[in-house]
Design a protein that fits this description.
The protein is mostly beta strands. The strands form four sheets. The protein has a seven-stranded mixed barrel. Strand 16 and strand 17 form a beta hairpin. It is elongated and about 60 Å long.
Length: 289
């Protein structure tokens, strides 16, 4: 086994390998996948000198711990969290060195949901359909991290950034999602549409990489019939029979049979990746650009 690798000591609740994803395969039933907070993943890659497409680790809530077999440069971003090397504090939001054999521990998120860990050279697991991303819905890509797993690393291609600390957006205290109504707005009553765009929802603890589920007022349908399955896009707001909106995220299905009331602007989706359960959510209708 090459010394350019990471041994997983503590996998955490859910830690996956993610990169830019595999767009362009929806016609084959393959979701896009990729890092939910793409700007955070891109930033930590830049900090360690990686190319934009390099794969990183995406943790969920309680972090993870890994042990590199060779000295590497690491950067941690996304959800603010404690970082340590062999028990000694290490910086968050800036590049630092981890000696071979040392234990790198990414602690629980102090706020937000997902932290991103970039390692010089990138995580070099086998690529599937042009991406190293773990897709929880289709099962493509590497499985979520497990204790004892060993992840290969690529060779560094660039020098780490010369910075002390890079500002990053704070996780949202209130998640504001701009939406374009449709294509199935007419499947809901006018009152339901007003409720959707004026009332406050909250992020449900049932949210995951497939979709951000909400809790709040149920939306009344104007049409009670069944809708034939049709294509779904990233950011689609689907309303299942319980009437509570679900925002489709990176691992969403490519088709669905429930009506889509609106679609979230792509620029607002990274914040959705960091909205912890209980976070207030407001949907704001905007006109077509």
């Amino acid at each position: 086994m090459s010394d350019r690798s990471l041994a997983v000591v503590r996998p955490g609740a859910l830690t996956t390998v993610q990169d830019l994803g595999r767009p362009g395969h929806a016609h084959l039933g393959v979701p896009r996948s990729g890092a939910l907070d793409a700007p955070a993943a891109a930033l930590v890659n830049r900090l360690v000198g990686n190319q934009p497409a390099a794969a990183v680790l995406e943790t969920t809530l309680d972090g993870c711990a890994v042990r590199p077999r060779a000295t590497v440069t690491v950067a941690v971003g996304g959800a603010p969290c404690p970082v340590s090397v062999d028990g000694r504090p290490a910086p968050w939001g800036a590049p630092f060195r981890v000696p071979g054999g040392a234990l790198l521990d990414i602690g629980a998120a102090r706020s937000g949901v997902r932290a991103y860990v970039a390692v010089s050279g990138g995580v070099a697991v086998e690529s599937v359909l042009g991406s190293r991303s773990t897709d929880l819905l289709s099962g493509l890509g590497p499985p979520p991290l497990t204790a004892g797993a060993v992840l290969p690393l690529g060779r560094p291609v660039g020098a780490p950034a010369r910075v002390d600390l890079v500002p990053q957006p704070a996780p949202p205290a209130e998640l504001v999602l701009r939406v374009t109504l449709g294509p199935r707005e007419d499947w809901f009553t006018a009152r339901a549409v007003r409720t959707f765009t004026t009332r406050v929802y909250r992020v449900s603890s049932a949210s995951n990489r497939i979709g951000l589920r909400t809790e709040g007022p149920a939306l009344e349908r104007a049409l009670s019939g069944e809708l034939p399955s049709e294509g779904m896009v990233l950011g689609a707001v689907q309303v299942p029979p319980d009437g509570h909106p679900v925002v489709f995220l990176a691992d969403h299905p490519t088709t669905g049979g429930y009506p889509v009331l609106a679609v979230v602007r792509p620029a607002d989706l990274p914040a959705a990746a960091q909205a912890a359960p209980g976070t207030p959510v407001r949907f704001v209708a905007v006109r077509h650009r």
